[in-house]
Write a structure and sequence with these properties.
- The structure is a single chain.
- The protein has two helices and 24 strands.
- The protein is mostly beta strands.
- Strands 1, 2, 3, 5, 6, 8, 10, 12, 14 and 16 form a ten-stranded mixed β-sheet that branches.
- The longest helix is centred in the N-terminal third of the chain and has 21 residues.
């Protein structure tokens, strides 16, 4: 603002000097104000005592507006107690990790901190924690953030509260010691790769009320032998059970419309699959390289199948009505088909 005032002051002074210069004698010796100059000399006007209001901008003068600055948003530093670092947000307390110097094999998340409900485990809060073996989540917790327990290689046990609604992307990926998961009825969505690469995971109980299972959610869970996908699930992401090489038994939700890309690809021990009459579309490589798959029951509701749905499945027979789309598909692609009602 001072710079602008100086500019205006100088421009005002120049304007007054110009006016004084014009107030010189004309050719007849008369000044602009009608007075006669003696000896033909110019009349000099002094401006040293003239007050100039620097807030008055002369007509036609452009003053550049000062740039508006937006204060930078800063993330508040987390608080700490004897065990946890945490943030207090509008919705409640968010656990962001362990306090400095804290090493623990068993963690029980408190229901409240500072008398405020703990509602979330932050993204990456316990990522790469090689000491953690068990975790207990409290009532009131709503969400487990992305990669919250990613690569907790010693984690064997997770106890969910019945208030958790969402498991974030990669939340438990690469938890190689985890053997069993049982989800409470409150959970409605499982993020992408949430349990990917949990090689020791043998048993998964998905809850009624679950709506969405993300892409690659259980991919490369190479010890998983069976899965029941509840009838509430309407979205099963691509490659959800990719490379589950020990998977032998699958029950598919009666709400699924599409079997997406690579959903059961490389499930090498799968021998039989029965699709409900809700399924209409089977996408690329949905069952590709299921080398022991012998029977695939497909209803006449299906109206589209990609050409490589059963790529590498040399033993498969499609069980479907002769007049169904899947029967014509089988004929076109050289796959065995048997009439089935």
């Amino acid at each position: 603002m001072r710079k602008i005032r100086k500019i205006v002051l100088l421009m005002g002074m120049m304007l007054l000097i110009g006016m004084c210069a014009c107030n010189k004698q004309d050719e007849g010796g008369n000044t602009d104000n009608g007075e006669t100059a003696e000896n033909g000399e110019n009349i000099t006007t002094t401006i040293s005592d003239v007050e100039i209001d620097v807030d008055v901008v002369p007509t036609g003068t452009f003053i550049e507006e000062p740039e508006e600055t937006t204060p930078e948003e800063t993330t508040p530093a987390p608080s700490s107690d004897d065990t946890f670092k945490y943030l207090v947000e509008e919705a409640g307390v968010v656990i962001v990790g362990l306090s400095e110097g804290t090493v623990a094999e068993e963690i029980i998340i408190p229901a409240t901190i500072e008398d405020i409900t703990v509602v979330k485990i932050a993204d990456e809060a316990f990522r790469h924690n090689g000491n953690l073996k068990s975790i207990v989540l409290p009532e009131g917790m709503l969400e487990i953030g992305a990669r919250a327990f990613d690569d907790c290689s010693a984690l064997e046990s997770v106890t969910f509260s019945d208030t958790v609604t969402h498991i974030g992307n990669g939340a438990f990926s690469k938890c190689k010691a985890l053997t069993e998961i049982s989800l409470p009825d409150s959970i409605n969505s499982i993020g992408n790769s949430a349990f990917a690469d949990c090689g020791a995971l043998e048993k998964v109980i998905l809850n009624d009320g679950l709506l969405t299972v993300g892409a690659y959610a259980f991919s490369r869970c190479t010890s998983l032998t069976e899965i029941v996908i509840p009838d509430t699930v309407s979205t099963l992401g691509s490659c959800a059970f990719y490379h589950c090489e020990a998977l032998e038994s699958v029950e598919v939700s009666r709400q699924l419309i599409t079997i997406e890309f690579g959903t059961f690809m490389y499930c090498k021990l799968l021998k039989k699959i029965s699709l409900p009459d809700s399924v209409e579309v089977i996408e690329h490589k949905a069952f590709a390289e299921c080398i022991n798959l012998k029977e695939a029951y497909i209803t006449d509701v299906v109206y589209f199948m990609e050409k490589d749905v059963f790529e590498g499945c040399t033993l498969v027979t499609i069980m479907t009505p002769d007049e169904a789309y899947a029967a014509n598909w089988a004929k076109e692609h050289g796959v065995r088909q048997k009439n089935y009602y």
